[in-house]
Specification:
Layout (H helix, E strand, L loop, with lengths): L1 E7 L5 H9 L7 E8 L3 E2 L2 E10 L3 H16 L2 E9 L1 E3 L4 E9 L2 H17 L3 E7 L2 E5 L3 H12 L9
Parallel strand pairs: 1-5
Antiparallel strand pairs: 2-7, 3-4, 4-6, 4-8, 5-7, 8-9
Helix pairs in contact: 2-3, 3-4
Amino acid sequence: MKATVRLQREPFDAAAVTAELTRGRTDVGAVVTFAGICRGDERGEPIAALTLEYYPGMAEAEIERHVKEAATRWPLLGVTIVHRHGRIVPGEDIVLVVTASSHREAAFAAAEFLMDYLKTRAPFWKQVETTSGKTWVDATAADDVAAARWTARRPGREAAE
């Protein structure tokens, strides 16, 4: 399985990243992409920017560990995760998760699993800058509930559609 994890300041091109994962592949029957984008408001208050910090080396290793976990749960043919750090303004991409499999069920489930992990457990710190000032943000209870479902059930390698 081809797996790529990139943490970068620069914007990314989701279509180019997806094409890179699937180029020349005839075994891929399903590709799921999820792009997280910086919203313009936080609980009704306008956002000027997000600042994302991370622990270099540790963050990549932790994300790669969860990519490997996804590959034990579903028959994946490829995964790419691109996560930005630094200052990000509303409308800009933050994160991209791309999963490839022979069938859609595995690609969808793996993308959701990986995104739930990134939202709650990946070693990133998010600061929101609004007109009221800057505040550090924790994962929400809803994010924690979403991530917990993956520990509550551990499916075997999913069958084809």
